[in-house]
Amino acid sequence: MKADKMIPTVVIVGAGFGGLRVARALRRAPVQVVLVDRNNYHLFQPLLYQVATAGLEPEEIAKPARAVLRGQKNFDFRMIEVTRVDFAAKRLDTTAGPIAYDFLVLAPGGETNFFGLASLQRHGLGLKDIPDAITIRNHVLTCFEQAMLEPDAEKRRALLTFIVVGGGPTGVEMAGALSELIRLVLVKDYPRLNIKDVRILLLEATDKLLPALPERLREAAGKTLWRKYVEVRFGATVADFDGRQAHLKSGEIIPAQTVIWAAGVRAAPLTATLGLAPARQGRIPVEPTLQLAGHPEVFIIGDAAYREQDGEPLPMVAPVAIQMGESVARNIARQLRGQPLEPFRYHDQGTLATIGRNAAVAHVFGLQLSGFPAWVMWLVVHIIQLIGFRNKLFVLLNWAWDYFFYERAARLITRD
Amino acid sequence: MKADKMIPTVVIVGAGFGGLRVARALRRAPVQVVLVDRNNYHLFQPLLYQVATAGLEPEEIAKPARAVLRGQKNFDFRMIEVTRVDFAAKRLDTTAGPIAYDFLVLAPGGETNFFGLASLQRHGLGLKDIPDAITIRNHVLTCFEQAMLEPDAEKRRALLTFIVVGGGPTGVEMAGALSELIRLVLVKDYPRLNIKDVRILLLEATDKLLPALPERLREAAGKTLWRKYVEVRFGATVADFDGRQAHLKSGEIIPAQTVIWAAGVRAAPLTATLGLAPARQGRIPVEPTLQLAGHPEVFIIGDAAYREQDGEPLPMVAPVAIQMGESVARNIARQLRGQPLEPFRYHDQGTLATIGRNAAVAHVFGLQLSGFPAWVMWLVVHIIQLIGFRNKLFVLLNWAWDYFFYERAARLITRD
User: Fold this and answer.
1) Domains of chain B listed by start with CATH number
2) What's the complex ipTM?
3) What is the pTM assigned to this prediction?
4) Which residues does A81 contact at the CB level (< 8 Å), separation at least 6?
């Protein structure tokens, strides 16, 4: 387990977008790369809401980390959990013993932020990993099965009321996909279902959906959701949810069995164990080079890193993590050659969000698109970014099938 | 929920091969069909071992019961568990209240039979449903991840020793698929793995694999497994397994972390709650017409029914359940028309078992095939029998991909 004295060891914590990019970009560098993650796979999180709405199978948007980097000679993977970082000794404590490093890249990602609301943490459904997505899928389908058995009309309506909290990309895409799952597919499965009993609400605390987009596209997104019978509500904040009723801050009470929580993300719990003072959302402030102050051999990237640019904190999204990963790999190579490091600068390539069949909004390359053209662009961009030709092929086939046959293949209730 | 007095209600318990066939065959009969199952899907069990060995995704071999019978006017599905049958009152007690029936078809299927061995029930891995298959997949892949971290050579070899118990079709197919998963795919994922540390054992208590087949094919199956480095052991009975060591009846001790139990099946636990005297394996004896003695309106089919033919009990396999389902549907229609019922007779169409790439044994239509021709026949038969064109397409694509690229896509460790 000891690194060769001649070849420095770069340990990367996390096989998400950022960590994987660092590992790949170091493939020709004179280093040994060790990637650790508590899962054995890389997950393409932007399509997780499609697993939650029975459109895709989890295996189609995930790929084993060992398979992704199989051809890379200087690469090693370990499925372990990091319990502590000893920055002074340059050592990680893990569930499988200590690992020494010469360079450390922390890319542990983010988790659902319930903002300390204990009742929502208990009864609300987050959407950050595969078990989350399967839980939502099982829960939504089970609500329909139970509604079919429920003679009490009020209880039945509560079973068929689905609240999505948060008007960012995840909430918007989730609400749109849920509406299509129910109104295009489940109506065929449940001929005795009265569609008037179904409610889907999208609750946003501010007065804006998709705040990163220009106003025209924000309005288009809201209208498209409304046309899909999603009740889009602004200035609506959920204060409490006991699994039966959602209490809003306004005093409004909504009987519902489902609250999907897409209202916030914070840095992964590992950041809280580092003994460092976090900034907002538990993120750790880093130098312009993404180094940890006082530890030039330690880099933090992605959702776990806090960095402002032009007076605004960088968003917790995949493109930031990917670009940070590329920057860190370059800077590690520079450091080994004794060259000065370059500061990181994020180049925003735009925002895309889909709202269902033929409907999306896109703000990319200075273009503002909505409707069908944006939807086509969304499809192309996501297929290109999926890792592995097999995943691309199977996701595309699934999408084509669902598009033409108004289907969702994966509507199994699988939890034992 | 009350049935129309004019139209008799046929309640079918179980959406397996038998139950589904009854529901379909009654589509034009003057009855209301109610199918109940604790899962919302029909599972194609013969391919479950491929989910366990990361070759297929669970969604590809299962289909929601509502989707299978979507077009059928006289059909209703309820996802509930039956807790009791009141034969006198013609009523089922369920987790969602009582259901009255005019005809009842019990098709609850089978479960893994550990023959009362408590330690194997606790530490052994059965293979009867989707959670079982995912558990085996997660367990096998986790053993490899842990072996990579294990400095102790003895512990590492125990992590890489996989014992399959039972030389029937499930055990043979499982052992063959496991060998190919490890020797063709995982060796690429784990370049530091010493393949000599890996052992796969197939333990059979008698001196025969696949006892339903003629001797030539039995021998061919055993030889093919051996060539795939599966240690096929006859007269070997596992007496105890604590999760670290398997103790055989002979006194032999095999250090191993994995025992996959494919040594037996018994009737589903529902049969034990009926107040009826079971025959072997918890199966309920039925009349030649598959009726329950004294209850002409109750039929029992599939793994839960006990019936002998030509002095031998009918095997617990899908073709028996399917043919029983067809017979029962015909007999219900005859009973409604006041015609006498016809006794059931099983027509054995043969046996097929695959052992890996290009290798299978088949005894069908009087033909005895082995090797490549049997393998092609196995592929064709299984693709035809899969329910739904989408499942056929995706399974075929997966198989083609794995065949040409020596891959297994679904090797994720997904349990949370």
Assistant:
1) 9-38+80-112+266-336 (3.50.50.60), 118-263 (3.50.50.100)
2) 0.91
3) 0.94
4) A38, A94, A95
